[in-house]
Write a structure and sequence with these properties.
single chain; binds 1,3,4-trihydroxy-5-OXO-cyclohexanecarboxylic acid; two-stranded antiparallel ribbon; eight-stranded parallel sheet; 10 strands; 9 helices; aromatic amino acid biosynthesis; Aldolase_TIM
Length: 254
């Protein structure tokens, strides 16, 4: 497998980490406004965090919102994410609905990547990867710990598992309790990138202490970073303009 993933001409896994901005509107009106506004920020990718959408449990409303969002930003690669409450998201739905939602997104022809959480039954994760790939949609397999940072061996083992399950972009976000935890995340990223990964990976340490990990992906091996438009979708996200400045500064220094 190639070490880069290309979506709509955006090469993930090469050069400056790519900037992704989440859409977190609760209503269709808010989502449309956000989609319009983020064009000015010129991100590399956009993520629709559907768990923030008030009608996420209505599949038809989701599909219709998806086509409205896509019509506003047709050229930007779109990640479709339902972040479950157990992983720091806004809502919890049944596994049956989670699968239906992601399959509908993959089949829609309107998204480039779906996000599938690792901590589900293995057969469900594999099934979603298969469904996505059948429609030429890539898959982020993700894991989040909003309370702590597991040991580096555990972080690496989860990232390897995501790769083994066919995720095109393994992703892990963890919460540091001190600066040492940020180092743990960075070291796990570096080891994964240099010893195990045969594809781009995404890692971040959240909150204030973890911000450095959102900026230094090019050095340690994280290919994509999330930047906030007006409001962050997770603790520690910095504004896109600041992110871009620092990413460029570090890139020039290398
Ligand atoms: O998984 C992630 C990463 C994230 O949690 C962050 O910490 O930037 C933000 C989420 O929107 C995204 O789905």
């Amino acid at each position: 497998m190639s070490r880069t993933l290309i979506v709509k001409n955006v090469v993930i896994g090469e050069g400056i980490p790519k900037i992704c901005v989440p859409l977190i509107g609760a209503t269709l009106t808010e989502l449309k406004q956000e989609a319009e506004a983020l064009k000015e920020l010129n991100p590399d990718l956009v993520e629709w965090r559907t768990d923030f959408f008030e009608k996420v449990e209505d599949l038809e409303a989701v599909k219709s919102a998806l086509s409205d969002i896509h019509a506003i930003i047709p050229d930007l690669p779109l990640i479709f994410t339902f972040r479950s409450a157990k992983e720091g998201g806004e809502k919890q739905v049944s596994i049956e609905y989670y699968i239906a939602l992601n399959v509908a997104a993959a089949e829609s022809g309107l998204v480039d990547i779906i996000d599938v959480e690792l901590f589900n039954e293995e057969q469900d994760v594999r099934g979603l990867v298969e469904a996505a790939h059948a429609h030429n949609v890539a898959v982020i397999i993700s894991n989040h710990d909003f309370h702590k940072t597991p040991p580096k061996e555990e972080l690496i083992s989860r990232l390897c598992k995501m790769q083994e399950l066919g995720g095109d972009l393994p992703k892990i976000a963890v919460m540091p309790q001190d600066a040492g935890d940020v180092l743990t995340l960075l070291e796990a990223t570096h080891i994964m990138k240099t010893k195990h990964a045969d594809r781009p990976i995404i890692t971040m340490s959240m909150a204030g202490a973890g911000v450095v990990s959102r900026l230094s992906g090019e050095i340690f091996g994280s290919a994509l970073t999330f930047g906030a438009a007006h409001k962050p979708s997770a603790p520690g996200q910095v504004a896109v303009a600041d992110l871009r400045n620092v990413l460029s500064l570090l890139h020039r220094s290398l």
